[in-house]
Task: inverse folding
């Protein structure tokens, strides 16, 4: 996003301190512009903080694809932006397309549930398990959905594919015997401008069969 | 997005403390963040430019659905729409609400979008949503939809703004006689959800509800209806099959007696007015009637009496009438 800070500025971003990510108590601190007046007050607030405040750059820890990762973000940094531009290495599987929660190219899983990462603040993902398309293959093995999409030619330009992989994976995780209608419903928030839907849905049904054959749920 | 501070209060009191009073120069520069599915869009389009967001997600207790001993269902404002859709108690007791929650946006939106956020979301009118269009909802002097492209705008209750309220769950909850629980610095108030929403001609044209800048919508309570034979439904018509806002929607709750006659009814329309549009005349006239073709025709006609379509949205009259008929037939058969 053009109006956000360049990545270079983040690389050596300091850990949040009381002055940047301060803890405060009650209205006094806020009325004074939010500044924590002195160390003793900050310490008192830290004992029983009633609010956490993020100002400017802070380093936060996210759990991405099973591993903890420290990322420096602003409050306005979306999870999508954090994944693509602030992770090391960058996780570019989730795509920036509409940036308005309409197209589904940025879909990731939060605690196993599909969400639009462009409509999620990175800070709101703290304490939750983030799964991107990079995290679904295990030990270099594609998951059943990825494999089925390859076998059913379910991808043309490929831009929407990561989002579909995650929406279908989450759907089959909940219900491996999901019907075609249920799969369509689960994918209603993902768009494919190439129109590969029939192939994607065939792939999803095949992946469901494969999961059931493997004796999954 | 412009840079902002993010405040994450851990208690409701701390959240309220963070909200400036109406006369405070910071009023309007502090916004509440719940699921963010509408708010982030507003920020990205530069429709609002707050200095601070008060993130409600960490507030305890507002993410619960509770069934009271009296049968009332209390739903916290932070409960996500996908949870409402899937909750057995909601499906059984408040079918219209479960159906409405399931009709909101896409799964990705429902997984983050909250009940409170859905009720407080801002209009979708494309003039309102255009950064450069300073329409009457944004402090300008005219509603551009009135003489402009108004296919998606109001046919009932419009003027001086012709937005339609975009919420799906709002009409369903009004049909279920829900109450809104609002916390302010001076305590709590509870009012029928119907009175939560305001017409542009009644309240401020800049707002869609009675919530002040110092208040937080904390819960919605759906009371258990008295007697038996209750059933409800929410039907939504959208232009695009996958997911979309309603062109028109109907929330209907009826109680049928042993002879299948309507004992009580509540009919609320969505997508056609700046507020969930209650059809009280129809509700009264339905009592004592059986649901047959004549009743459907009569109710559908009466509900749209007084509709004043704009240049491009007269289709909403027939569409809404068809939805009313469909809803009545569905409940008669259920």
Result:
């Amino acid at each position: 996003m053009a109006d956000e800070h360049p990545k270079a500025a983040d690389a050596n971003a300091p850990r949040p301190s009381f002055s940047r990510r301060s803890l405060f108590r009650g209205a006094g601190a806020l009325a004074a512009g939010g500044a924590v007046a002195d160390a003793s007050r900050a310490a008192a607030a830290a004992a029983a903080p009633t609010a956490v405040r993020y100002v400017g750059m802070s380093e936060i820890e996210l759990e991405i694809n099973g591993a903890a990762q420290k990322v420096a973000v602003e409050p306005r940094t979306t999870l999508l932006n954090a994944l693509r531009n602030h992770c090391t290495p960058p996780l570019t599987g989730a795509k920036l397309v509409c940036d308005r929660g309409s197209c589904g190219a940025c879909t990731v899983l939060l605690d196993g549930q599909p969400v639009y990462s462009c409509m999620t603040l990175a800070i709101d993902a703290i304490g939750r398990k983030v799964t991107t398309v990079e995290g679904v293959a295990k030990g270099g093995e594609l998951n059943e959905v990825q494999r089925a999409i390859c076998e059913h030619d379910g991808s043309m330009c490929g831009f929407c594919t990561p989002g579909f992989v995650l929406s279908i994976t989450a759907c089959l995780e909940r219900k491996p015997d999901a019907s075609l209608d249920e799969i369509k419903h689960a994918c209603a928030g993902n768009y494919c401008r190439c129109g590969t839907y029939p192939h994607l849905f065939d792939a999803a049904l095949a992946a469901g069969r494969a999961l059931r054959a493997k004796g999954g749920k | 997005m412009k840079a902002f501070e993010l405040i994450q209060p851990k208690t409701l009191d701390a959240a309220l403390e963070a909200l400036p009073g109406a006369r405070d120069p910071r009023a309007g520069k502090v916004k509440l963040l719940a699921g963010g599915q509408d708010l982030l869009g507003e920020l990205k389009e530069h429709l609002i430019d707050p200095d601070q967001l008060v993130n409600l997600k960490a507030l305890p207790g507002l993410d619960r659905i509770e069934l009271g001993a009296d049968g009332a269902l209390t739903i916290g404002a932070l409960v996500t729409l996908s949870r409402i859709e899937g909750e057995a108690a909601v499906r059984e007791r408040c079918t219209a609400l479960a159906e409405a929650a399931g009709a909101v946006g896409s799964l990705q939106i429902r997984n983050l979008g909250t009940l409170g956020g859905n009720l407080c979301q801002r209009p979708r009118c494309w003039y309102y949503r255009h950064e450069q269009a300073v329409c009457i909802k944004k402090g300008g002097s005219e509603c551009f939809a009135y003489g402009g492209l108004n296919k998606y705008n109001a046919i009932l209750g419009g003027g001086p703004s012709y937005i339609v309220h975009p919420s799906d769950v709002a009409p369903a909850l009004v049909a279920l006689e829900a109450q809104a629980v609002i916390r302010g610095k001076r305590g709590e108030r509870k009012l029928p959800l119907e009175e939560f929403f305001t017409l542009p001609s009644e309240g401020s044209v800049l707002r869609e509800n009675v919530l002040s800048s110092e208040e937080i919508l904390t819960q919605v309570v759906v009371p258990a209806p008295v007697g038996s034979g209750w059933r409800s439904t929410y039907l939504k018509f959208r232009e695009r099959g996958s997911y979309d806002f309603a062109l028109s929607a109907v929330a209907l709750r009826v109680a049928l007696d042993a002879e299948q006659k309507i004992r009580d009814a509540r009919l609320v329309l969505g997508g056609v007015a700046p507020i969930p549009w209650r059809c009280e005349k129809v509700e009264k006239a339905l009592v004592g009637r059986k649901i047959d073709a004549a009743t459907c025709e009569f109710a559908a006609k009466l509900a749209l009496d007084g509709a004043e379509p704009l240049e491009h949205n007269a289709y909403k009259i027939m569409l809404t009438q068809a939805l009313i008929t469909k809803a009545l037939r569905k409940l008669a058969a259920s």
About this structure: The longest strand of chain B covers residues 248-256.
